[in-house]
Amino acid sequence: xxxxxxxxxxxxxxxxxxxxxxxxxxxxxxxxxxxxxxxxxxxxxxxxxxxxxxxxxxxxxxxxxxxxxxxxxxxxxxxxxxxxxxxxxxxxxx
Length: 94
Known about the structure:
Blueprint: H1 22-34, H2 56-68, H3 76-81
Helix pairs in contact: 1-2
């Protein structure tokens, strides 16, 4: 049986210095990446059926990333305004 390795966008993301829970931050980053709005401002995920952004999974992922960074609990309104920016990518040694 062949092994298939799943590569997620969080594997290449650089963790911010203030992250206290790397596992939560990376899981939330992957959800946010999957629900990042397209050029029309719609969620591309089939789970959201093209609804406007930010969709509920994106808002929840954004909140989880902040909490994993030691951030205090935030209001639902402030979460709705934020969309996580793509993280910097690490350069891989050749």
